[in-house]
Design a protein that fits this description.
mainly alpha, 5 helices, about 120 residues, single chain, flat, 2 domains
């Protein structure tokens, strides 16, 4: 229960740091380019992360049995399969391109890993 508060505190600090650097760039609408400024995306994402982390820090402490985390060793195989598939997808992007690598990953995930129907996979 304490670890989530420590991680949330670290996220608050990291978000504040990222926001301090993002405000060096314009975060509002840029009239010259007709779009948001260069700091808009990092600033607003950091602000959302900061708000969520503050909610985690100040949420009431509960001791429900459902909140107790237990590590299931049977899930290591599927977890490693997905991690390897993501690594293969990322390694394919420079050579095959994102338009090929990402649909291949999605097809693998839906049809082969998820065992869904052909209509859903395609």
């Amino acid at each position: 229960m304490l670890l989530d508060k420590v991680i949330a505190g670290a996220l608050v600090l990291l978000s504040a740091y990222m926001m301090s650097h993002a405000i060096l760039l314009p975060i509002g609408w840029n009239g010259e380019t007709g779009g948001p400024g260069g700091g808009a995306f990092p600033f607003w994402c950091s602000l959302i992360i900061l708000i969520c982390a503050v909610f985690v820090i100040f949420r009431p402490a509960r001791s429900y049995e459902a909140d107790q985390f237990t590590f299931d060793r049977e899930m290591m195989g599927p977890l490693i399969q997905v991690i390897v598939a993501i690594a293969v997808t990322i390694s394919l992007i420079p050579t095959a391109g994102a338009y090929v690598a990402i649909p291949l990953f999605l097809f693998w995930y839906l049809k082969i890993y998820g065992k869904h129907s052909w209509t859903l996979a395609l």
